[in-house]
């Protein structure tokens, strides 16, 4: 794959004695949405946590293999983990707004990274709220507490906050699962626009969402990568019997 951004090589994860991911080999392209698809417990979220080394925070976890980001193995001992995580925005199932105003949520990361100029911070706030399709809804109440927003607005605020630190990669762990259909559509539309400039990895178990969003699909089942293909090929010409069964709804 010519435009690869991430390459996963012979990668396995254990929680204690339980193997959660088994010898995963996967190449993730730049400027595309790669959907990690599969039923609950198949290893989707474990893979996502492996990519920004959130597994480091979990007790009794062991990994083997490599994950290369821009050609560098992120599990090498000399890797700067905070710098790695700065490369990767993270959007979770349930929005986690900070206990501040809407404005302070967006500029939180840039301020930590040393930006103090108020004019620049205001420009950052406008840019990323606009990018997350939220500016028109909140521009007159930027100083109000973020927790007063609807859950759909909170999720888009979290997206704006993540984008404000200028990551290269967006990790999305079922980001619409707690949202109503209208809010879900807005998040999906935003992701489709963002893929022009980002590598997006989206975890979902919803086939309809995968059809709408995916350029590529990696189907996981019981900790194994069963099939990886472009979205059209995945749905129209699945190769593995387990993939066919999942698409038909025969396994979950």
Topology:
Layout: E1 4-15, E2 18-29, E3 32-37, H1 44-51, E4 61-69, E5 72-73, H2 81-86, E6 88-91, H3 102-112, H4 118-131, H5 135-138, H6 151-163, E7 169-173, H7 181-194, E8 199-204, H8 207-213, E9 216-221, E10 224-230, H9 231-236, H10 241-248
Parallel strand pairs: 3-8, 3-9, 6-7, 7-8
Antiparallel strand pairs: 1-2, 1-4, 4-5, 9-10
Helix pairs in contact: 3-4, 3-6, 4-6, 6-7
List the defining traits of the structure above:
252 residues; alpha/beta; four-stranded antiparallel β-sheet; 10 helices; 36% helix
Overall description:
The protein is of the alpha/beta class and 252 residues long. It has a domain at 100-166. Helices cover 36% and strands 27% of the residues. It is built from 10 helices and 10 strands. The strands form 2 sheets. It has a 6-stranded mixed beta sheet, sandwiched between helices. A hairpin with a 2-residue loop joins β4 (61-69) and β5. α3 (102-112) crosses α4 (118-131), α4 packs across α6 (151-163) and α6 packs parallel to α7 (181-194). The longest helix is centred in the middle third of the chain and has 14 residues, at 118-131. It is globular. The two termini are 30 Å apart.
Q: What proportion of the residues is helical, as a percent range? A: 25-40%
> What series of H and E elements makes up the topology?
EEEHEEHEHHHHEHEHEEHH
Number of helices: 10
- Topology, number of strands: 10
* Oligomer classification: single chain
Distance between the termini: 30 Å
Coarse morphology:
globular
Radius of gyration: 18 Å
Class by helix and strand content?
alpha/beta
What strand order characterises the main sheet? 6-7-8-3-9-10
- The residue-averaged pLDDT reads 93
Bin the strand percentage: 25-35%
Major β-sheet, in short? 6 strands, mixed
Low-confidence regions: none
């Amino acid at each position: 794959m010519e435009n690869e951004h991430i390459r996963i090589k012979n990668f396995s994860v254990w929680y204690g004695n339980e193997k959660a991911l088994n010898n995963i080999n996967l190449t993730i392209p730049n400027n595309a949405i790669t959907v990690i698809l599969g039923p609950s417990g198949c290893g989707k979220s474990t893979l996502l946590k492996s990519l920004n080394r959130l597994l480091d925070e979990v007790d009794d976890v062991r990994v083997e293999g490599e994950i290369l980001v821009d050609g560098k193995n992120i599990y090498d001992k000399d890797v700067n983990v905070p710098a790695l995580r700065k490369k990767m925005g993270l959007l979770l199932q349930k929005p986690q707004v900070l206990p501040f105003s809407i404005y302070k949520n967006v500029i939180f990361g840039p301020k930590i990274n040393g930006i103090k100029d108020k004019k620049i911070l205001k420009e950052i706030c406008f840019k990323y709220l606009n990018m997350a399709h939220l500016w028109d809804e909140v521009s007159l109440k930027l100083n109000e507490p973020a927790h007063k927003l609807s859950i759909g607005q909170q999720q888009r605020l979290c997206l704006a906050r993540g984008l404000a630190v200028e990551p290269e990669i967006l990790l999305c762990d079922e980001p619409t699962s707690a949202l109503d259909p209208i809010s879900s559509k807005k998040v999906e539309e935003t992701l489709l626009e963002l893929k022009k400039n980002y590598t997006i990895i989206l975890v979902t178990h919803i086939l309809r969402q995968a059809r709408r969003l995916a350029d590529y699909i990696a189907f996981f089942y019981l900790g194994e990568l069963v099939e990886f293909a472009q979205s059209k090929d995945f749905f129209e010409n699945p190769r593995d019997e387990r993939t066919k069964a999942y698409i038909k709804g025969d396994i979950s």
